[in-house]
Amino acid sequence: MKIGVISDTHGLLRPEALTALRGSEHIIHAGDIGDSAMLGKLAHIAPVTAVRGNVDREPWARKLPLTNVVEAGSVFIYVLHNLEELDLTPEAAEFAAVVYGHSHVPRQERKNGVLYFNPGSAGPIRFRLPVSIGQLIVEEGKVRGKIRRLEV
Question: For the whole prediction, is pTM greater than 0.85?
């Protein structure tokens, strides 16, 4: 299963991001969405799971949860915006991955058998960081990630 991962769009859904997400079977938006229309545009590609980020303060965003769970086959993925607000021990809860955003820094690492995955920011360029999205590949009960830098 291919899961597209996007975060920190801050109201900007780049055509390059849409193109990169095509072919996803599911999309995770890890917060700081910035515009309610964005989730609808992403849903034209694949079902979307989204969480509210710290800049998502408009009335439409209050309906979004602060955390969410995606089930991909036998794999469970925990989603939140700010990793510093992680409120559980992922390996004890048997999550295969934790997806987060907030820092705008693309990053993936394994800790205690859990993949911690931040796709970086796909929105406005900030702090001279790259514009990027991610992809999770779930196969045979395991999850691995790829970070894709977008040329903008």
Answer: yes
